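Entry 14. Structure prediction run on the chain below.
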Amino acid sequence: MATKVLIVDIHAELYRDQLQREFSGLQFMLFHKAAEVSGSLSAIDVMIMFGIEIRDQMLRDAPRLKWIQSLATGVDHFLRCPSLRPDVLITSGRGIHGVPMREHVLYLMLAISHNAKRQVEDHQQRIWERRFWSTLYGKTAVIAGTGIVGGAIGEMLQTLGMRVIGVSRMPRRAASTRSCRANACARRQARPTT
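Output returned:
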C-alpha cells in the first residue's frame, strides 16, 4: 500500500515534486490552505504543513496518521490539538532558518547603514557624488531571541566587530552573545507554582 501524504502550503506542488523525485511511490493530496482541505483524510499517513494551519478535525479525520512534518521550527500548534495521538511522530524544521535569516539580516543592516535606497536613487538620476556611510563595526546589536536564528545572527554580527546582546523570554545564555537578559514576564512564568 502506498504512503499517502497531505501537504498544506502555498508551495505544496514544489514539495510534492521534490518528494516524488526522491520517493516515487508516494501519493499526495495538495492544498494551499487548511480551509481548502476537502475529501477524506482517512488514508493519510503523513501531514506536511505549518502548525498554524492545523485544525483538530484534520487529526480526528486521519486515523492512519503516523507522522507530521512541521514546516516551521515550532510544533506547539500541533501539540495543542486534543485529537493528536501520542503515537504520531512530529518533526520540525528546527535549525534550517539560521543561515538564511542571518544573511537577510546582514543584507538589511548593510542596506540601512550604507543608505542603499539613496545609492539606487543617485544611480537612477546619474548622480555620482561621494557619500559617507557608517560601518557596523563597534556598534551594539540587541537580538530578540537567542535560539538558532538569533544565535546565527549573533555569531555573524560578532565577526563584523559588533557587540551583541541577546534578549530571551527564557533565562538562558546563547554562545553567540556576550550577555543575555530575560524579561520580567518570562521570569514570572519560570517561577514554580504552589
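The chain has two domains: 4-91, 98-190.
Filed with the rest of this week's runs.
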